[in-house]
Amino acid sequence: MMEKYELSFCLEKYLKFGSLEEFNYDEPVKIMNISLDDALIEYEKILEKEINKLNTSNPIYTLSGGIDSSLIFSFLQNPTCFCSQVDGNDDYDFAKKLYPRVIKESGFNTINIEDILIDIQAFFPTPHCMVGDFYDWHIYQQFPHKLIITGEEHSIVDILYILSQNGSLIERFFKTIEVFTDEEIYEFGYKPLSYNLRKNNIEHLITFVEEWWTVANRKIFFSNRKIRTESPYFSDEADSFYRRLPYSLKHNKKLKKAIAKKRLPEFISNRPKRTHQSRQSPNPVFLNNNKHQYNSLVNKYLKDENKKLFKYLSYELVQKYLNNYRKMWALLNLSIWIETKHGGLYG
Asked: Which of 53-57, 66-70, 190-194 has the lowest mean pLDDT?
């Protein structure tokens, strides 16, 4: 029997969601009764005000050629923009078509994955494996001393993906956002957490996703003063307004597409939606292109029986999940965090 050591955090929660930040999802926000036309006028006005405020700092803007970053771009005159070209997507093609002066940032060609993961785990007080943090940490450091304005938005896309799956709503929900299932967590020797989500209340699930992703994860990442990052969508006024919109206006980005149709070329407003990407692991193309580094990291942090991770998780069970990108990524980040944060352990 594996000897159990006490952790200073809830390992069950990390195994479930890939992060441990506290978030409030007890009650859904109060939804406004507002038409698309009125919402368009009000939200466009709020965004313009917030973008103008941020623009006084002479920032650099991310431009992916998607709706969110392109909407920000539409309020600007000759801004400095960059697009990070990640393996497996066509963002730069769309960004360049919209703005020929966009800078192509392809720093992923020389990436040192281990250094980035160690930096991230050193920053977060508890283990963390969100893929956006990994990509952004690397790219944003290419622009030291600059304020970077991103198109980071609310995580409604996860809800849309959930609704497209088969099975009961609550089963689809957890299948989409969880890293390890309750059964797998139990097999590791931990008791799964109970989440009181109302089974057929879409607004409650939206509140959960928005709090879990937007507030608990990205706002913490944005607080990192080593990387100066802001998003107009996360300003208090824009955030509050968007959360209170009826789901019908957020579904398939209806409101943002209506504004985009007014302000942007058709090839942006009608850009095909990307395939759903897990929030907790890099895309498989990126992993495959960097498989030498990943194999080395897996050998170092997940196959070495002397690593501290195996005080908490069975070595044999961990090996079982190394061919699953999502689960491997969570375990790899956890092992690196434990090795990096000696002060976070007891026993």
From this structure: 190-194
By CB atoms closer than 10 A (0-12, 13-18, 19+), residue 75 is middle
The reply to whether 149 falls in a domain is yes
At 5 the pLDDT is: 47
Q: How far is CA 33 from CA 38, 227, 233, 271, 311, in A?
A: 10, 38, 21, 29, 53
* CA gap 115, 44 in Å, rounded: 40
Q: By C-alpha distance, which of 94, 91, 95, 97 is closest to 81?
A: 95
User: Containing domain of residue 261, as a range?
Assistant: 11-23+34-344
Specify the number of domains making up the chain. Answer: 1
Exposure string of 79-110, with b = 16+ CB inside 10 Å and e = fewer, is bebbbbbbbbbebbebbbebbeebbebeebee
Four-residue CA torsion sign, 141, 145, 151, 153? positive
Asked whether residue 2 is domain-assigned, the answer is no
Q: What is the predicted pLDDT for the residue at 343?
A: 43
Split at pLDDT 50, 70, 90, the class of 214 is: low
Beta-sheet strands, E only, within the chain: 60-62, 81-84, 103-105, 148-149, 229-230
Would residue 6 count as lying in a domain?
A: no
DSSP notation for 273-339: PPPP--TTS--HHHHHHTHHHHHHHHHHHTS-TTSGGGGTS-HHHHHHTTT-HHHHHHHHHHHHHHH
Q: What is the DSSP letter of 271?
A: P
Question: Where residue 347 falls among pLDDT bands split at 50, 70, 90?
Answer: very low
Which residues are 105's β-sheet partners? 84
Predicted TM-score (pTM) of this structure: 0.81
Task: Tell me the C-alpha distance between 225 and 243, whole Å.
Answer: 26
Kindly indicate the confidence band of residue 162, based on its pLDDT and cuts at 50, 70 and 90: low
CATH of the domain at 219: 3.40.50
Would you say residue 318 lies in a domain? yes
